[in-house]
Amino acid sequence: MTAPVVVPVADHGVLVVFDDQISDETHARIRALDAALALTPPPGLTEIVPAMTTLLVVFDPLVTDHNAISTAVRANLAAPNTSSSGALHVIDVCYDGLHAPDLGALAERAGLDPEAAIAAHLAGKYTVGMYGFAPGYAYMYGTPESIQQPRNPTPGPLVPAGSVIIAGQQCLIIPIAMSTGWFAIGRSAASMYTADHDKPFLFDVGDTVTFRRVGADELDSRLAEQQPAEQQLTKR
Amino acid sequence: MSTAVLHVRRAGPLVTIQDAGRPGLMRYGVPASGPMDRFAHAAANVVLGRPLTQTAIEVSLGGLSVECTSAPVTVSVCGGDFAVDHAGERRTSWAVLTLAPGDTLTISAGRWGSWCYLAVAGDIVSRRWLGSTSTHVRSDLGGGLVRAGNEIVIESAQVDDARDGPIEPPVVAQPARVLRVVLGPQLECFGPDAADVLLGNPYVLTAAYDRMGVRLAGPHLSINDALAIPSTPIVRGSVQVTGDGTPTLLFADHQTTGGYPKIATVIADDASRATQLRSGDTVQFVGRDPAAAIHAARAAASSHAHHLAVLADRPGLRTRRLLSTNLIGGAFHSPQPCRPAEGDISENPSL
């Protein structure tokens, strides 16, 4: 276990680099630093952004500087681990028909039949490693090796919000319709946005997610129920 | 006080509702958004005596045309050098004017600058998300895009025509062409000469320019075999380099993490001022060590605080106020000097 490197970012941040490979151990260390800094924030700290192998600390340059924040980071690396193990979420997914446009292609690449690919995805235990890209994109890792495939070099057709997409060891429930080079292998009715100001997003970094299979009828009825709630979120 | 309505006759792409931004949520994938040019946004509010973080309309090069359809309201247009037509009278941005019912205000691209701000003496009614009206364009969260046919409703609309008139834009309103960077945080992902190439050559803004960032054209920046690195957090001002060696400078609606390596990061004030450049303009990156970057941030904050204080109490305003007070009241009252309502501007790191 090597000591992380602390690198300056412009006039208002430091990036703490733990490793260049994703692992549970590295991610646990990142979560521990995140929790320690949140518990005893040094003066001028404005934001902590945990990621898969790095953690960004943003600060107010009128109050502090890179040296003081780096010192606080190093001190907190030695602090006892107060990070919680994270919540466990079970997310319902439909892997049927049009809800799973890329399931066939993924299974073929992996040399599996579609049911075996679904079983593999359902067997995975996923950790929320970081958010990225745009609001509510929670990048999870933990996709089983048997269905790990690199993303396609070019994005495919638009897939709807709630699509469950995978590439490599990563898995994501997309909160906004998008076109992607990842494999859309199912769809969930889960909304990444909660409309709860104190906990605006469904997952926190460090949470664990597993999936449960539902049929198309059940998914469709949940999607139909959900429309009003989704519209609420942008209301004042 | 009354409710004024601005009917949007025409709006270019990327005309959005923006307050000062939504910082602190990057851990959920949410960039701060907010104005591309933070100083001009604050200035637009301050010249009306409003809180400098108040919701305003960010106008892109595509322009905006609105018609005042109900009560009169005093507004400001600050940022860049845009052409402003108020009921047939031509002006430029950096002005305060009072819209009467039936007046049309048209803002269009002028001699320089990419963004300007239409602020109002009142409260723009807008969608709020996570405590802010700032629009994140990609997700359409926050106040949202302003489109033709929209009605912009302004509650508590005030007429404050003593403020009407042109404003001398301070020098800090000019775009930054020399961008100060701290190298890294992923310099090790690049070839040994890449930093010298970045700092030793001009780069040109391409047409791939929106609220997320601008792709630059210039000498190739060689990347080691680093394209498989896990995504790392990025900030406004990050210079991210794609696999073909092309740098992109990230702005207000940036992604919060990125899988491409970052060769350098532009200091916050220069990243804000660079947004007033246009496609085809040239920038030169210069390296600064972290201590010099901190010094620059503090100098910029102090300069902005000074200029905003001057704008809040600009020459002539006091005299016009005295005159109007005397005309109405018939007696001499010492008017309160106008100050930015947030009080201590220096506490805001973004300014």
Short précis:
Chain A is an alpha+beta fold and about 240 residues long. Helices cover about 25% and strands about 25% of the residues of chain A.
Quick one: how many beta strands of chain A?
13
With strands numbered from the N-terminus, the spatial order across the biggest sheet of chain B is: 7-6-9-4-1-12-11
Largest sheet of chain B: 7 strands, antiparallel
Contiguous low-pLDDT stretches of chain A (5 residues minimum) are 229-236
Walk across the major sheet of chain A and give the strand order: 5-13-6-7-10-9-12
DSSP E strands of chain B, number: 22
The helix-and-strand class of chain A reads: alpha+beta
Mass-distribution shape of chain A: elongated
- Fraction of residues in β-strands of chain B: 25-35%
What does this molecule look like?
The complex is a heterodimer of chains A (236) and B (351). Chain A has 236 residues and is of the alpha+beta class. Chain A has 5 helices and 13 strands. Helix content of chain A is 27%, strand content 26%. In chain A, strand 1 (5-9) and strand 2 form a beta hairpin. The longest helix of chain A is centred in the C-terminal third of the chain and has 17 residues, at 216-232. The model of chain A is unreliable at 229-236 (pLDDT under 50). Chain B has 351 residues and is α+β, with helices and mostly antiparallel strands. Chain B contains 5 helices and 22 strands. Chain B has helices at residues 38-46, 194-200, 268-273, 290-312, 317-329, and strands spanning 2-11, 16-18, 56-59, 64-68, 73-78, 81-86, 89-92, 95-99, 104-112, 116-120, 123-124, 151-157, 165-166, 178-183, 202-209, 213-217, 232-233, 238-241, 247-250, 257-258, 262-266, 282-287. Chain B has a 7-stranded antiparallel beta sheet, with no helix packed on it.
